[in-house]
Amino acid sequence: MRFDPIPWPVLLALLVWSCVGRAFAEVPPDLLAALRQGGFVIYFRHAATDWDQQDRERSLMDVASCDPNRMRQLSDSGRETARRIGMRIRGLGIPVDSVVASEYCRTVETANLLDLGPVTTSRDVINERVAERVGGRDHLRDAVRKRLATIPRPGFNSVIVAHGNVFLLAAGTRPPEAGAAIVRPLPGGRFDVVAMFAPDDWDKLRER
Q: 121: part of which helix (H) or strand (E)?
């Protein structure tokens, strides 16, 4: 199967957007067409959680616990938001090749509820608060940046579901809960944050 290159007008629009700034309330022109062509990394922060709960990890074994008495979990509204976003992405015909999540239960559950493909876990995108247990903050930052700079299989996008503090560490900004950063990998191990999405911004993607 042959995949046509992304048209220059689309690339130019994305480049102009990246240079002039980004906002949650706006969506770059022709972004839907570009996402359908593939070539992006979509980084999700896990959906909304119950902030009455607290993380009480004593070891890396604890972070995957879905026990709300041990680790903070998704709220019911967060679960519904993740389902709705996944349904919207599938309905828009945005192809996804791989889904990687942090080991935390709330990130794995978000990834599963998005239902964009089989989910694998990786400590490359684990919460910054346990970074010292996986090689330190610099190691975590470099691992996340490497994933953000990895070009997906032709014609597809890749998805990462992790934490706000991890994207902040790697890119200097972060989406809200259930928000997403649309990242375009570039040659030489670099990447550009093309857009930052709030949860409802997927509804703003329209045919142009």
A: strand 119-121
Residues 99 and 97: their CA atoms lie apart, in Å, by 7
- In residues, how long is the chain? 208
Q: Please state, in angstroms and as integers, the Cα–Cα distance from residue 135 to each residue in 46, 47, 194, following that order.
A: 23, 26, 29
Please give the domain boundaries of the chain with CATH numbers for all domains: 26-204 (3.40.50.1240)
Q: In whole angstroms, what is the distance from residue 81 CA to residue 129 CA?
A: 25
Q: CB–CB of 134/142 below 8 Å?
A: no
**Rounded distance, CA 194 to CA 163, Å?**
19
Residues in CB range of 146: below 8 A, 6 or more apart:
124, 189
Tokens of 57: 């990890």
- Per-residue pLDDT of the chain (208 residues), as tens digits, is 333 444 444 444 444 434 333 444 466 778 999 999 999 999 999 999 999 999 998 888 899 999 999 999 999 999 999 999 999 999 999 999 999 999 999 999 999 999 999 999 999 999 999 999 999 999 999 999 999 999 999 999 999 999 999 999 999 999 999 999 999 999 999 999 999 999 999 998 876 5
Half-sphere exposure of 203 (CA within 13 A, CB side): 6
